[in-house]
User: What shape does this take?
Amino acid sequence: MTDRGTLDAVSPLDGRYARYTEPLVPYASERALMRARVQVEVEYLLALADHDAIPFSLGGGDEADGQSATDRREVLRTLYTDFDAEDARIVKQLETEGYGDYAATNHDVKAVEYFVREHLPEGLDAAQWIHFGLTSEDVNNLAHRLLVGPAVTEVLVPELRDIRDALAEMAREYRALPMLARTHGQPATPTTFGKEMAVYASRLGRQLGRIEAAVDGLSIKLAGASGTYAAHRAAFPDVDWRAFAREFVDDLGLEHEPLTTQVNPCDDLAALFDAIRRANTVLLDLAQDVWLYVSDRYLGQVAVAGETGSSTMPHKVNPIDFENAEGNLSKANSDLEFLGDYITTSRLQRDLSDSTVKRNIGAALSHCLIAYQKLEQGLEKVVPNEQVMREDLEGTPEVIGEAVQTILRREGHADAYEQVKDLTRGRDVTLADFRDLFESLDVSEDVREELLALAPAEYTGFAEEMVDDLADSE
Assistant: This one.
């Protein structure tokens, strides 16, 4: 087997970014897939042994070799619970070179079957029941979902929750900090920095719910070579194999998919990938906005001691975490979209092109994980620059024009929009210009005072109070 260091890795996922992707190794590596396949084969064998109509058992009470049925069950389960690097090496050798009395299988699932055969408890005659009536896809579709589900819930979802919590904390801390908003890149009605972060926290929270629902919807087929249980029924026509499959899948904590061809159609995985992609799109929007806030000096960055910002400009602290996150989120979404489209189609009963494609699921999830960690690091470094925000607001008094024309409309001025437009469009307007307009208006003194009290920093509507809506979405 090849033994290379991270500097020799072909992919940055196992090279430059290996420390970031390490949490996914138990779910996305080839050894992990081998282990999951062993788990499926072992649990299937145990389920056969537990069925009254199948003439196979693990034994009665104490056997001559001292092993009871319970002992043998425990030994079999250690094949996957204790599956280690040496076990993986043996499986790989069975596939590529041959091992013991076995020639090379050139088939990864058959190699797992032979591995289980070679490690049966002493005295247990069970070789004929391993992989009984199954097709490779029965094992693979189960194994992939046993890995993908926990990879998402145990690794990705906690990172997403941390980002959402960081955004919610920023929203609450800076709920009242006024900030110029922009629409079409132009100065627009002011907001608060906290409210803008609350929007992202809320959006991400909704997408988290969709991801978790998609994981709950992962479904499994266990119906043989054409999805008809044909071999099973031919061997044991009196067994309700459909009920057997449902119970087996339920016991593994997954949902049974009753109608398939040889392959699981993978609509469930596509739905999960799409849910992750939607969350990533929210974070892409966040990364790009924060980058712009840094560019506009609305956000400063805490410099890390000893860190180089630019190779030639010593003063710079580049927003590299957000740029890195943007790149990895974009790559992840490209991969997830491709995977979702590709694995949901298969020629007639099946073709094998999906097999190599599914090996890249871990890569897509790895790009997600890198991006999430980079976003967290970036958010920890940014600090709002209140002075710059306020100066920007004071320098764009025209943003109160919306409030002015709306109040005048309330007072019956049908031409209010046009009056404010004539004052502000294409001109550098000041608050004094607005006050001159207010003095010339035919309005009551109460309304005039109301208009004169308008100021950009106070024109934020319910932005501060809206942050409290986060409590309902978390």
Q: What stands out?
A: The chain is about 60% helix and 5% strand.
